[in-house]
Amino acid sequence: MLKTHNDFEVSGPVVVVVLDGVGVGKHDAGDAVFHARTPTMDWLDDVALKTTLLAHGTHVGMPSDADMGNSEVGHNALGAGKIYDQGAKRVDVAIRTEVLFERGSDDSETFFEMVDHVTRSNGTLHLIGLLSDGNVHSHIDHVEAITTHAARLGIKRIRLHALLDGRDVDGQSAHRYIEKIEAHFEGLSGVDAKIASGGGRMLVTMDRYEAEWDMVERGWKAHVLGEGPAVGSALEAVNSARKENPDLNDQYIPPFVVHDSNGPVGTIEDGDAVLLFNFRGDRAIELSRAFEESDFDKFERHRVPDVFFVGMMQYDGDLGVPARSLVKPSKITSTMGELLASAGVKQLAVSETQKYGHVTYFWNGNRSEKFREDLEVYIEVPSDRVTFDQRPWMKAAEITDATIEALNPNSGIRFARVNYPNGDMVGHTGDFEAAVIAVEATDLCLKRLLAAVRKLNGVAIVTADHGNSDQMYQLDKNSEPIRDSQGRFVPMTAHTLNPVPLWIYAPGLDGLKVRELATRRLSNVAPTALYLLGLEPPEHMDDPLILKRSEA
Ligand SMILES: O=C(O)[C@H](O)COP(=O)(O)O
Ligand SMILES: [Mn+2]
Ligand SMILES: [Mn+2]
């Protein structure tokens, strides 16, 4: 399907380097990318073709331009060369148009099976997921809409297992979402609806890529078994954690189980239904497996209730996880990885555990399997198990070593993608000094990687999937950093709306020119990489970022 061109020949590999969470900021107090010493990126400014790419909102398939980018939508766009409606948008549309709630519509079958199951068994509808409006993994509006309709349809008992965010939203905002959802529950007449358990998302349930199954085990204990620190309410759990550590980010609030005088208010029992309302898959797959796999062996579950389990979306179409889901995802096909595999081109993907699935699963359009076992080399460097403000260099050196080794001249690898997680994972801790070190560590390793690419007569496309470290403090409406009662800047842990850098480092290729485009965005990267590989970018992809020789 891919055709070749003869405009030039790059004999070495084409390498896409994703500096995760390294956006182009406002060069202000909280811009850790600007404040970092980055001789490699500065040098790229001089020797490489340079532009910026949009990486947020509608440019990556999110519902609105107020939505920041994230790793899923960013890597989907990078790998597919095209913008697809993302989970956030698909769910938003299904809920707003109410097709999800109309009995008999094509899109409501599972919703009604779930409701009917609970009604028939006189059971409880449990909702588990990230309680915020970050719109990266979930949105509180979806919880409100679903519980409103469940109540309308006669469900009498609802329990919410609330994972507290602080990572895609303000670091200390959990109480606001708890109050909002509890007020909503109050308004559901004739329904007994309560928060039953929960905890900070980086301690409970939302592990990804099997980095720390203990997180999921803690979640299983709290949500299913009702085991864990007992509290009178979710707000009490938040307040007591903050009392102990006033600077604690919501991500790290310990697990909690809400009790009344009879004990836990909402364990998960036979006959119940469980909706995992996160739409994004990376941090939802493990809990889905714990509910669905009969031969599950990642931790001791003790009791496995016979429930009707549903995901907001199907998180992995290859593996069919979970078996049932409410909203169908976009079918992302003919991605760069798939096209290269069918053209017989050998590929490499490298990162550490925390971002391993980003360059494999997300890059390939949320597919976890390889297209061609013999043509794809995937390398995962095990991540440290710490909060990354403590190790801002993370595994950047090891990722670089592994990439350089894998790209040896005998490897036959023509295309590689590499993700350096530092700018993002450290950005999420809200620690400005650590974020500066994270960016500096990445820059140092990038130098070594680019030298290797040059030696191999290859080309590097260096970019990012969205911003994060480029804004480490919250700003007021005049773009001034907000200060807390003690005069300290208030950390911002979430991604940013900023564009990302794009450098094309092509030492052997003269005369490359940036294409004039109304908008340059992440989806322009795959066609650019294909063109540099000597292949014609396919029709269904967006334009390459450089002019073809015939157009120059
Ligand atoms: O899951 C996370 O860590 C955050 O919600 C988003 O970060 P990512 O999109 O960079 O993974
Ligand atoms: Mn990312
Ligand atoms: Mn992130």
UniProtKB/TrEMBL annotation:
Amino acids binding Mn(2+) 1: D424, H428, H495
Substrates-to-products reaction catalysed: (2R)-2-phosphoglycerate = (2R)-3-phosphoglycerate
Domain annotation Metalloenzyme: ranges: 13-536
SUPFAM superfamilies per UniProt: 2,3-Bisphosphoglycerate-independent phosphoglycerate mutase, substrate-binding domain, Alkaline phosphatase-like
Enzyme class per UniProt: isomerase
Family: Belongs to the BPG-independent phosphoglycerate mutase family.
Aminoacyl-tRNA synthetase in keyword set: no
Cofactor(s) listed: Mn(2+)
Lineage, highest ranks first: Bacteria, Deltaproteobacteria, Bradymonadales, Microvenatoraceae, Microvenator
Record protein name field: 2,3-bisphosphoglycerate-independent phosphoglycerate mutase
